[in-house]
Design goal:
It contains 16 helices and 19 strands. The protein has 404 residues and is of the alpha/beta class. The chain binds adenosine monophosphate.
């Protein structure tokens, strides 16, 4: 199977193809929102689901939303209840959202029975049942029992073969991608299958090991790759460059060398940092004694924390107005820490004004562009970290497959 089969236009139905009037639509959403002391600290995932829910409401569906929240490990954990999400969703939709204290059984059935056309209910955390992550068939049947139609708008869990992602759609004949899911598939497919060139990828983050499949895929497609973040130090060490006490994956040095050789053989240009910011120590997002390192090397006792000023200038100049496609996955520095965010920020600011088709591949990079207030300036900011990484690596996502 090729990744192009994952395009919704070819074989996955859209909301517009469904006749939802008066019917119960099981809508798998991603309400895995951050909470602090029972309060939602960031409701972007709730907001992201509104367009799909509004279409379903307008078309007279009885909307039954289901999501996971955190990792309760199959037990009921009060602090991971979706009840506060139901409340916030109601505020955002400006209609009351009813809540069922269990996602299956009597509570779920009573919720569905109470839903009039155009009304919305939310089921309690799917992962309060261990059967959800196990992809259990009986559990999927219980979830599907009150529903007529399946809609998946939870791209962030599409790489998981969980009961609500794979089992429920297998039981309901009518199924479709929600608007968010559709945009994810369309935007990510565009950079995967039909990128306009020049096409550049910017990679960063903590580890090479998480992104091997992505790098291999990109080597076949892009014109150049910019590698920053802690990941860069493994590549630099593989070339014999001194990297001090920076984060490194010593078991990936051969792989890094091999990837650099393959890139060079293909004529894919790899840009590694020309200079750095370093710190004396890192403890979470607290760093001490940040300073510039004027060239590629980082001395013993120092830890690389960001790309330096010469690298920022060189990369920004190299990603010019002629660039047609940019994929960005992974921040080039420890942007959460004071004094270490400039590389990520300047890159984000530069890309925000670029005429290229620009996709941010989820996770920490999405958090970074949101923190800088620039998320709206990109063509697509994926809501899925692991799912986006898998999709862009060319893997088939179980949750996308299940919608065929
Ligand atoms: P990943 O999930 O692999 O994309 O990693 C993202 C994380 O990598 C972010 O939290 C960044 O702060 C972190 N990161 C980026 N550059 C560095 C660095 N030089 N040293 C340590 N962590 C880094």
């Amino acid at each position: 199977m090729t990744s192009s089969d994952q395009r919704p236009s070819t074989s996955i139905r859209s909301l517009a193809d469904l006749d939802v009037r008066h019917r119960v639509v099981f809508c798998r959403v991603d309400y895995n929102v951050p909470l602090a002391a029972g309060r939602i600290t960031d409701d972007r995932r709730i907001v992201a689901s509104l367009p799909t829910l509004r279409v379903l409401i307008r078309n007279g569906a009885r909307v039954l939303c289901a999501s996971h929240l955190g990792r309760p490990g199959g037990e009921v954990k009060a602090e991971l209840s979706l009840a506060p999400v139901a409340e916030r969703l109601g505020e955002r939709l400006d209609v009351p959202v009813r809540f069922a204290e269990d996602c299956i059984g009597d509570a779920a059935e009573a919720l569905v029975a109470s839903l009039a056309p155009g009304e919305v209910g939310l089921l309690e955390n799917l992962r309060f049942h261990a059967e959800e992550t196990r992809g259990d068939d009986a559990f999927a049947r219980a979830l599907a029992a009150p529903a007529d139609i399946y809609v998946n708008d939870a791209f962030g869990t599409a790489h998981r073969a969980h009961a609500s992602v794979v089992g429920v759609p297998a039981l309901l004949e009518e199924r479709a991608a929600g608007l968010l899911m559709e945009k994810e598939i369309r935007s990510l497919s565009r950079v995967l299958d039909a990128p306009e060139r020049p096409y550049v990828a910017i990679l960063g983050g903590a580890k090479v090991s998480d992104k091997i499949a992505l790098i291999e895929k990109l080597l076949e497609r892009v014109d150049s790759i910019f590698i920053g973040g802690a990941m860069a130090y493994t590549f630099q060490k593989s070339r014999g460059i001194e990297i001090g006490d920076s984060l490194v994956e010593n078991d990936k040095l051969d792989l890094a060398r091999d990837l650099l050789e393959r890139a060079s053989a293909r004529g894919t240009k790899i840009h590694l940092p020309l200079d750095h910011k370093s710190a004396a120590s890192i403890d979470g997002s607290r760093v001490t004694e940040v300073r510039d390192e004027a060239n590629e090397t980082i001395p013993a006792g120092r830890i690389g924390v960001d790309i330096g000023p010469a690298t920022r200038a060189a990369w920004i100049a190299a990603i010019g107005a002629e660039t047609r496609t940019v994929l960005w996955n992974g921040p080039p520095g420890l942007f959460e820490a004071a004094g270490c965010e400039q590389g990520t920020r300047q890159l984000a600011e530069h890309l925000a004004t670029s005429p290229a088709f620009r996709v941010v591949g989820g996770g920490d990079t999405a958090a970074a562009v949101a923190r800088f207030g620039l998320a709206d300036r990109f063509d697509h900011v994926s809501t899925g970290g692991g799912a986006a990484l898998d999709f862009l690596s060319g893997a088939t996502l179980p949750g996308v497959e299940a919608l065929r």
